[in-house]
Design a protein that fits this description.
Helix content: 25-40%
Radius of gyration: 30 Å
Strand order of the largest sheet: 7-9-8-10-11-12-13
Shape: elongated
Distance between the termini: 86 Å
Strand content: 15-25%
Structural class: alpha/beta
Mean pLDDT: 92
Largest sheet: 7 strands, mixed
């Protein structure tokens, strides 16, 4: 049995709820909530605009399932004369809906269907399904793309003409917001940060989230340079962005836009980010409510994953956290639906801007003052597995990194860098490691319990409960020593080399590494807190095989305060050399620990052979075998 609702906000179980608005001659379905918000604003102001036809509007995302689409077309659309669909994405984003709309238009005469693409690259694919002239569909698409009250008033008048079988003039004098449009530029002190936002939200006066971004930037001593744009795939707009932001000498860029700025088959279009040459951060704008996100184990839905994570990664954008959610605000009875607005999530905006600020500080600091922590993979947690890597000679790479850092002016202290990688690993293993056999060795440092407890109190209760249920309270942890929680590693001046803590207590288990429900023990949290708050590191380098932090329990993507990668990983630059032929595990680090991947090539294939004592033993066997046929006395000696 299906539940029938009038407005999508009444849906508790989408799979078994059907939307049935009152019938109307015109139905408008769209991927963009700003379209509905602007039409609502137009129709609500009856003193300036009187519209003689009833119209129903609905987000395409509210018609996800086949049963919902079928019911909507057989009820709300039963007596409709015109249906307009504006789709962001290609045909495959809503293929069943388009198919059923084609069937709907054939059932009765005088029915019209208009399919409008929200993006230029999908126009040919989508516009052909419309019943009116393609030139007119292109014109409507352009009006919607520019947005704003006056352009959408024209669209509504055109819809009336189509119902009345009247022709209309294609007036190309669009009302266009200057692109890109400068907004809220002030003479703030501090490094300048570019902020790129969709102009459709400005046209719909939905700017609370933009105000919040600028507010938190200023609170952290940064100077926002916000630009509203229709698209980052328009070459003219991109060239102006480059001109504006290079003139301002910006230190980084925040973007809330979807998609990538380049098409996958034309890398010459990457002019925008290549020319500006600063870190670009993706502040995630979710298409769902905050409550729905919080209650989801997945985090982001498939559409948000595609548009806000996967495609922006093509640009090399650094993933942050969900910072904006789409919330219901009010019901507009003129169009039979509830209006959506973007709601900023202050905690995550502040966290993300803290991350951005730390990237800027890393660039501004003199090398001699920078503190870098290099975290070595170690699982299973025996000494023989420290700094293991896939396709990477991690010990030798570590040695070369130390030598390179010293040559670049980083402070490496009085301790001499070992001459070879074997001596470097011997130095590391001479101190405390994760291996139980090293428990009597001296650790690098301790995090006292009282300091850890101050950090512990800031963790949200639900996460603390999960940890204590598995690892007891901090003062009862079996890894706690009289001086506190030990920090495993060695130091070369401002460069710390730490061994990533184990996720469990079994030194031979690798199942703990990818466990979806095993929380990190107290020493794990203590070591990462030490990196950020005690050692005051400016950046983290993860070296070797992939680590365990990005596999800690929590949402699959779009983390919250209760997700352990978010709790453990500080908002610091996270630099991650990783093998180029394993993008899956590299993506995990990018999406759950804000990592910047530096790909290294796979090693050349060659005959491995044997070495050292094994080589000598093999030669003795060969010699023994040969003497059996030549000299029996020598054979006995061997």
């Amino acid at each position: 049995m299906h539940k029938i609702v009038s407005y999508p906000q009444n849906i508790n179980d989408e799979k078994f709820s059907l939307i049935e608005q009152e019938t109307a001659p015109i139905i408008f379905l769209t991927s963009a909530s700003t379209d509905i918000a602007t039409i609502s604003k137009i129709l609500s102001n009856k003193s300036n605009f009187s519209y003689k036809y009833n119209i129903r509007a609905l987000l395409i995302s509210d018609l996800k399932y086949k049963s919902q689409i079928d019911h909507y077309l057989s009820s709300t659309a039963l007596s409709s004369k015109l249906i307009i669909v504006r789709l962001l994405g290609g045909l495959n984003h809503w293929s069943y809906g388009i198919e059923q709309l084609n069937n709907w238009k054939k059932l009765k005469k005088n029915r019209n269907l208009i399919i409008i693409s929200g993006t230029l690259e999908n126009e040919l694919e989508l516009h052909k399904y419309s019943t009116i002239d393609l030139q007119k569909v292109d014109y409507l698409a352009q009006l919607f793309r520019y947005g704003g009250v006056n352009n959408l008033k024209r669209c509504l008048n055109i819809f009336s003409n189509i119902i009345e079988h009247k022709d209309f003039i294609l007036d190309r004098n669009y009302e266009i917001l200057n692109q890109p449009h400068k907004w809220d530029w002030k003479n703030d002190k501090g490094p300048k940060v570019g902020v790129i936002l969709y102009s459709s939200y400005l046209n719909a006066e939905d700017i609370n989230y933009a105000n919040a971004i600028n507010k938190y930037l200023r609170e952290q001593g940064l100077s926002p340079r916000a630009l509203w744009v229709t698209s980052l795939r328009n070459k003219s707009i991109c060239l102006k962005i480059i001109s504006y932001l290079k003139k301002e000498k910006i230190s980084s860029i925040i973007t809330t836009t979807s998609f990538s700025s380049v098409s996958s088959n034309n890398h010459e279009e990457s002019i925008l980010w290549d020319k500006i040459n600063v870190p670009v951060f993706q502040l995630i704008v979710s298409s769902e409510t905050k409550d729905k996100w919080k209650n989801s184990s997945l985090g982001l839905n498939p559409i948000d994953l595609t548009l806000q994570i996967v495609m922006p990664e093509i640009d090399g954008r650094i993933t942050t956290r969900p910072c904006v959610f789409k919330e219901y605000s009010k019901v507009n009875k003129d169009i039979g639906t509830q209006i959506h607005g973007l709601s900023p999530y202050d905690n995550h905006i502040n966290w993300s801007i803290n991350l951005i600020s730390n990237w800027i500080k890393l660039k501004q600091k003199a090398n001699k003052d920078k503190k870098i922590t290099i975290v070595l993979a170690n699982y299973p947690v025996t000494n023989g597995r420290i700094a293991n890597g896939v396709g990477l000679d991690t010990p030798n790479s570590l040695l070369k990194i130390l030598v390179w850092l010293k040559s670049e002016g980083y402070e490496l202290g009085e301790v001499k860098i070992p001459l070879n990688d074997s001596d470097l690993i011997k130095l590391i293993t001479s101190r405390r490691t994760n291996d139980p056999l090293s428990s009597n060795n001296k650790p690098l440092d301790y995090l006292p319990l009282n300091i850890y407890m101050r950090y512990w109190e800031k963790i949200i209760p639900s996460a603390k409960e999960i940890i204590t249920n598995r690892w007891l309270d901090p003062n009862k942890s079996i890894e706690l020593e009289p001086k506190g929680f030990p920090i495993h590693g060695v130091e070369f001046g401002n460069i710390s080399i730490l061994i990533q803590p184990s996720r469990g207590y079994d030194p031979f288990s690798i199942n703990d590494l990818h466990s979806p429900d095993l929380p990190p023990p107290h020493r794990y949290l203590a070591q990462y807190y030490w990196i950020n708050s005690i050692n005051k590191s400016d950046a983290i380098i993860n070296l070797g095989k992939h680590g365990s932090l990005e596999w800690l329990p929590g949402k699959g993507i779009g983390l919250s305060e209760g997700c352990f990668p978010h709790i453990v990983s500080p908002p610091l630059p996270n630099i991650y050399p990783f093998i180029v032929n394993d993008p899956g595990e590299g993506s995990q680090a990018k999406r759950r620990s804000q990592a910047v991947i530096i790909d290294h090539l796979t090693p050349p294939i060659g005959k491995s052979g044997i070495y050292g004592n094994l080589l000598r033993l093999e030669s003795l066997f060969d010699e023994y075998y040969e003497t059996k046929f030549i000299d029996s006395n020598r054979n006995k000696l061997i």
